[in-house]
């Protein structure tokens, strides 16, 4: 049986054909998935059967995986996806099992597609095109590894909504003039060189630090196969060759002295922290409210200090306040905090009878439009803020601590090893107490439904274990 897939809108067409074939339980080996390159006469063209009697269902996770895999260049992808759909009718869980060979193959394909899309978003270089309309026009040529044109271009429509553009690839052309349309491929257009390319050169030459060359990291970030269409890469060989001379010149020139007023300005900006340890928890809180130990204090609204029962045997340590916590000045009041509080309640732990705090006490974010996007604190920020965490721990002296996520685990144990094998275990804090390691609730909120359900169960089990251990220790 032959199912024809159009050049564009292929995933939707595959989805409809696959549903129809599966409703007749047509075996995967009996279907040829054909595109415009498949010669029509090669296969007997059995017409598609009408919808059959068998119900066909697919999970959201599977459909999202299938949509990504559909942009892979492997000609086998449609057959693999159909085989997976047929299998899903008997075995709902196999897509969530990373050890399954088919799941593994599809996941690796999806990963390669996601990486290619990411690279396309980063490496498309537009040339301004002469035009007479009210909007500026741009064109770009890009050679992705996979047929990702349809999957990758909506990003450019959001980013460059106020200009007309086209992106030509060997697989086809995407054109935007308020809406995207797709057309078959044409020979590579000859775009005029323009001022934006000089800007790329200047930018690249300026961010290039000859003393910090890591060619492997550079090649992994900017793989060679994309170089030929990046204007700035013309500079790379010369800059690499010239780097030793520039480093030598930098060495010989030595460090420049800071101007005389720099120390005064630095002292004023940083308001050199008061290192005298406060004597009470209240005094510690008051001092922390004025903390300028690291730069996070400048953008955050306020310090978010711990709260709860200072005499509690249990301390819960998160990563850092999020957007809601920053605005309200209280820990764990946003979505991740709600999940934590509900799971604690289900485990018999009353948040008011524990001390709830964070490894870092200021919100770290990057602004994106009107939104503030959470960022993980850096190791240096965690170390600076440990001054407060240590104080809190001395004053509260918990008998058991629960570390939520990798940042808290690092701050408490000094160990940066991955969390997965450590989760559910009890380790020893740098100050010598027991600490139970578990997931951060915001991780659970970010996972796909399948893995999230499993992580939730583990989180609930860990908090129940914490309730038992805290009760024993009390
Ligand atoms: N995440 C944290 O780690 N802490 C909070 O207070 C809120 C979210």
What descriptors fit this protein?
17 helices, alpha/beta, binds uracil, 15 strands, single chain, five-stranded mixed β-sheet, 44% helix
Question: Can you put this structure into words, describing what you see?
Answer:
This is Type-4 uracil-DNA glycosylase. It comes from Paracoccus benzoatiresistens. Belongs to the uracil-DNA glycosylase (UDG) superfamily. Type 4 (UDGa) family. This protein is α/β, with parallel strands linked by helices. The protein has 4 domains: 2-119, no CATH class; 124-183, no CATH class; 196-253, no CATH class; 281-473, Uracil-DNA Glycosylase, subunit E (3-Layer(aba) Sandwich), CATH 3.40.470.10. The chain has helices at 10-23, 60-69, 77-90, 101-123, 149-159, 195-207, 215-221, 236-253, 262-270, 281-289, 296-299, 323-328, 335-346, 379-396, 405-413, 441-446, 449-473; strands at 2-4, 32-34, 127-129, 137-141, 164-169, 172-176, 180-183, 307-308, 314-318, 355-358, 365-368, 371-374, 400-404, 426-428, 434-438. The protein starts with a strand and ends with a helix. The protein is flat and about 85 Å long. The strands form 4 sheets. It has a 6-stranded mixed beta sheet with strand order 8-10-9-13-15-14, with helices on both faces. The chain has a 5-stranded mixed beta sheet with strand order 3-4-5-6-7. The protein contains 17 helices and 15 strands. The longest helix has 25 residues, at 449-473. The structure holds uracil. Uracil (URA) binds at residues 318-322, 325, 331-332, 334, 336-337, 358, 442. Residues 318-322, 325, 331-332, 334, 336-337, 358, 442 line the site of uracil (URA).
């Amino acid at each position: 049986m032959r199912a024809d897939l159009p050049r564009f809108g292929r995933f939707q067409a595959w989805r409809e054909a696959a549903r129809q074939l599966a409703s007749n339980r047509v075996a995967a080996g009996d279907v040829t998935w054909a595109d415009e390159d498949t010669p029509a006469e090669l296969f007997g063209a059995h017409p598609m059967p009408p919808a059959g009697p068998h119900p066909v269902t697919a999970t959201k996770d599977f459909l999202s995986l299938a949509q990504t895999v559909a942009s892979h260049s492997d000609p086998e992808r449609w057959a693999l996806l159909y085989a997976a759909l047929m299998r899903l009718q008997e075995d709902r869980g196999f897509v969530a099992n990373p050890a399954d060979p088919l799941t593994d193959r599809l996941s690796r394909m999806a990963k390669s597609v996601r990486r290619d899309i990411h690279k396309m978003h980063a490496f498309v270089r537009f040339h301004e095109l002469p035009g007479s309309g009210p909007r500026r026009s741009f064109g770009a040529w890009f050679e992705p590894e996979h047929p990702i044109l349809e999957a990758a271009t909506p990003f450019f429509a959001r980013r460059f909504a106020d200009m007309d553009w086209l992106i030509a690839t060997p697989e086809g052309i995407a054109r935007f003039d308020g809406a995207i349309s797709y057309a078959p491929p044409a020979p590579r257009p000859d775009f005029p060189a323009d001022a934006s390319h000089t800007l790329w050169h200047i930018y690249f030459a300026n961010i290039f630090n000859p003393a910090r060359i890591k060619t492997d990291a550079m090649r992994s970030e900017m793989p060679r196969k994309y170089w030929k269409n990046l204007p700035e890469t013309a500079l790379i060989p010369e800059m690499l060759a010239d780097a030793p001379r520039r480093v030598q010149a930098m060495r010989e020139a030595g460090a420049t002295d800071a101007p005389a007023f720099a120390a005064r300005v630095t002292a004023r900006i940083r308001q050199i922290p008061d290192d005298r340890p406060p004597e009470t928890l209240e005094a510690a809180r008051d001092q922390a409210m004025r903390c300028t130990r690291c730069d996070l204090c400048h953008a955050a609204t306020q310090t978010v200090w711990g709260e709860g029962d200072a005499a509690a045997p249990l301390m819960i340590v998160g990563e850092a306040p999020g957007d809601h916590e920053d605005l309200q000045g209280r820990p764990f009041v946003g979505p991740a905090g709600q999940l934590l509080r509900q799971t604690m309640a289900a485990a018999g732990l009353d948040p008011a009878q524990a001390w709830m705090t964070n490894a870092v006490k200021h919100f770290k974010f990057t602004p994106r439009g009107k939104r503030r996007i959470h960022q993980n604190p850096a190791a240096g920020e965690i170390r600076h803020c440990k001054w407060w965490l240590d104080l809190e721990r001395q004053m509260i002296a918990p008998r058991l601590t629960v570390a939520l996520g990798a940042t808290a685990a690092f701050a408490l144990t000094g160990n940066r090893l991955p969390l997965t094998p450590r989760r559910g275990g009890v380790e020893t804090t740098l100050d010598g107490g027991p600490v139970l390691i578990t997931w951060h609730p915001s991780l659970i909120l970010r996972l796909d439904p399948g893995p999230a359900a499993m992580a939730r169960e583990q989180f609930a089990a860990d908090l129940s274990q914490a309730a038992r251990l805290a009760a024993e220790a009390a």
